[in-house]
Design a protein that fits this description.
The complex is a heterodimer. By secondary structure, chain A is an all-beta fold. Helices cover about 0% and strands about 55% of the residues of chain A. In chain A, the strands form 2 sheets. In chain A, strands 2, 4, 5, 6, 9, 10 and 11 form a 7-stranded mixed β-sheet that branches. In chain B, strand 3 and strand 4 form a beta hairpin. Chain B is globular. The N and C termini of chain B lie far apart (about 35 Å). At the A-B interface, strand 5 and strand 10 of A face strand 3, strand 7 and strand 8 of B.
């Protein structure tokens, strides 16, 4: 069974940092691109970042560029999101998702909640 | 940057057909994907590459894409179809994934 499990969320003060992890199982992790998508409370889906297989292509939304860094460890079947200089508007549930051939997000984790508040 | 526009809400009578639109410039030239999200749950892919259903998605879900509008159609709507629906494309010029704002479907 294909599975993605996020962890690392929590409460952090503005200006602080968090590192999210996404553990994958049930598929050939190294051959897939992966994305982070977030959803603020009561709001829609917002794409955050993507990383290709082999980490050759990395993209960020303008809202997080320069503050967030995506990475992957294929040996550990894990995806990461290092979040620095966090702001109130970064408060959201963060999902990791696997991407298939047509850039559709065909498998999602259950999400991890990040709350930025003083 | 590329933008997708969806209606905030759509209502449909039980057993009837619901139509949710997703507007974007020349969206017909892109691959459109649709997601269903129920409260407290992660999104689920229901349509990929304009018209294709992943395994396990009922045939009642169908879609089309042409010109400046993509459309998700849910036939014989059931109470279990109540959810938020999002369209999504990939913007090749930036490498970004773009989501529509989402449409809340209510089955009356």
């Amino acid at each position: 069974e294909v599975q993605l499990v996020e962890s690392g969320g929590g409460l952090v003060q503005p200006g602080g940092s968090l590192r999210l992890s996404c553990a994958a199982s049930g598929f050939s992790f190294s051959t897939y691109a992966l994305h982070w998508v977030r959803q603020a409370p009561g709001k829609g889906l917002e794409w955050v970042s993507s990383i290709s297989s082999g980490s050759s292509s990395i993209y960020y939304a303008d809202s997080v560029k320069g503050r967030f860094t995506v990475s992957r460890d294929d040996a550990k079947n894990s995806l990461f999101l290092q979040m620095n200089s966090l702001r109130d508007d970064d408060t959201a549930v963060y999902y990791c998702a696997r991407v298939d051939v047509w850039v559709e997000l065909d498998c999602w984790g259950q999400g991890t909640l990040v709350t930025v508040s003083s | 940057s590329y933008a997708l526009t969806q209606p905030l809400s759509v209502s449909v009578a039980l057993g009837q057909t619901a139509t949710i639109t997703c507007a974007g410039y020349n969206i017909g030239g892109k691959n459109v994907h649709w997601y269903q999200q129920k409260p407290g749950q992660a999104p689920v892919l229901v349509i990929y590459r304009d018209t294709n259903r992943p395994s396990g998605i009922p045939e009642r879900f169908s879609a089309s894409n042409s010109g400046n509008t993509a459309t998700l159609t849910i036939s014989r709507a059931q109470g279990g179809d109540e959810a938020d629906y999002y369209c999504q494309v990939w913007d090749g010029s930036t490498g970004w994934v773009v989501f529509g704002g989402g449409t809340n479907l209510t089955v009356l």
